Amino acid sequence: MIVLIGFMGAGKTTVGHLLAERLGLPFMDTDLVIEQRTRRSVRDIFGTDGEPAFRDLEHTVTAELLAGPDAVLALGGGAVQHPATRQALHGHHVIYLEVGYAESMLRVGQDAYRPLLRDPGLEGIFRRRLASYQVVATQTVPTGGRCPEAICLDILARLGRTPAERP
Predict the structure, then answer these.
(1) Which of 93, 109, 138, 154 is close enough to 105 for a disulfide, judged by CB 3.0 to 4.6 Å?
(2) What share of the chain has pLDDT > 70, as a percent?
(3) Which tens digits make up the pLDDT trace of 54-69?
(4) Could you give the CA distance from residue 105 to residue 80 in angstroms, rounded to a whole number?
(5) How far apart are CA 79 and CA 131, in angstroms?
(6) Distances (CA, A) of 156 to 38, 66, 96, 105, 133
């Protein structure tokens, strides 16, 4: 299993799709799986049930996906805050897509879908998460100023993997 972690705007979904395609693996995004299963948006779950309830649900989904067939899995930006999720990541390739706060905000600053963007302490949340990303990551890949294709190729090289043969 290859797991992509990082703050919002790091490129987890975009790079994840490219990586999965190159490796001939399925791509999964925990936020999308949660929305499909609950038939609710992440924003609604955050707003109605609160962040702790969302993180518990996110952990359950993450643990289940990690136990499944090989894939490229993108986790939500705060998933690694949950201690059980951090534990579940042991033994997997965990790639931290590192992005600076300013660039993250340029990439996602107007996205109404992201519940934390309205939090006035967002930069503090960003800073607090950095240690968790670094602790669980088996590789750290900088994304600042880089195109998704270059990031994907960097990850492949770091993992010693080659793209799947295309017919």
Answers:
(1) 109
(2) 89
(3) 999 999 999 999 999 9
(4) 20
(5) 13
(6) 33, 20, 14, 27, 20
Does residue 2 contact residue 93 with C-beta atoms inside 8 Å? Answer: yes
Q: Which of 102, 107, 140 is nearest to 123 (CA)?
A: 102
DSSP 79-107: GGGSHHHHHHTTTSEEEEEE--HHHHHHH
How are the residues of the chain apportioned to helix, strand and coil, as percentages rounded to the nearest 5?
Answer: 55, 10, 30
CB 137 within 8 A of CB 86: no
Secondary structure string (H, E, C) spanning 109-159:
CCCCCCHHHHCCCHHHHHHHHHHHHHHHCCEEEECCCCCHHHHHHHHHHHH
Q: Within 13 Å and on the Cβ side, how many CA atoms surround 59?
A: 15
Measured from the Cβ of residue 128, the count of other Cβ atoms closer than 10 Å reads 12
Radius of gyration of the chain (CA): 15
Structure tokens at 148: 């998704």
State if pTM tops 0.70: yes
Helix and strand element counts for the chain (H, E): 8, 5
- Contact call for residues 19 and 97 (beta carbons, < 8 A): no
CB 2 within 8 A of CB 19: yes
